[in-house]
Amino acid sequence: MNTAPLVAGTKIRWFREGAGLASPATGVASRTNRPSEFDPSWLDLGIIDTATESPEQDTVEKFATVGGVKVLYDKAMTKHINKIKFTLGEFQPLVVEMVNKSDELNAASTQFNPMEGPAVNRQQKGWLHFQIRGHDGRSVWKLVYGFLMLSGDVPYTAEEFVSPEFEFTELLSELNSGALA
């Protein structure tokens, strides 16, 4: 990948843990069973207004005494967390499902029962396909396991589009991968 200024947009797809896989093999999605990027069961999250990667880390510092003053000698990272925060530009069944803790909803759903879905339905584990596409054709993508949750209020107003905010926290999986193109 060459170094150059970049204007970028994002495409994000979601694959729930426990959903059936059609590709590369049968079974269900889990931390140890990743769907192919071509599996037809991916949920395209539509228009993404904004997306941000937010790495967080904790460090420890080692100091040495020099002439009666402690001076930083070394520093080491002890914990790393990577979060992807994004705002949807389209309202969809996943938002209704997560706000109301209902069972899984999709485009064909016509009814739901609030508070009758899985207890963890405001936070779901699964696979996220995160692609950054540049104005010049360059792209960076990664396919990572983690958990997805609504990260704030979902305001309904007649003055602007509903734009729910989500936060995805990456979790360790030997199958996590990414590419530069």
Can you tell me the CATH topology? Factor Xa Inhibitor
Structural class: mainly beta
Count of DSSP strands: 8
CA radius of gyration: 20 Å
Distance between termini?
A: 7 Å
Question: Your description of this structure?
Answer:
The protein is mostly beta strands and 181 residues long. It has a single domain, classed as Irregular (Factor Xa Inhibitor), CATH 4.10.410. The protein has one helix spanning 93-100, and strands at residues 8-16, 43-44, 48-66, 69-88, 123-134, 139-150, 165-170, 177-180. The mean pLDDT is 88.
Give the secondary structure arrangement, pairings included:
Blueprint lengths: L7 E9 L26 E2 L3 E19 L2 E20 L4 H8 L22 E12 L4 E12 L14 E6 L6 E4 L1
Antiparallel strand pairs: 1-2, 1-5, 3-4, 4-7, 5-6, 6-7, 6-8
Attribute tags:
8 strands; mainly beta; 1 helix; single chain; Factor Xa Inhibitor; 4% helix; eight-stranded antiparallel β-sheet; 181 residues
Summarize the structure.
The chain is 4% helix and 46% strand.
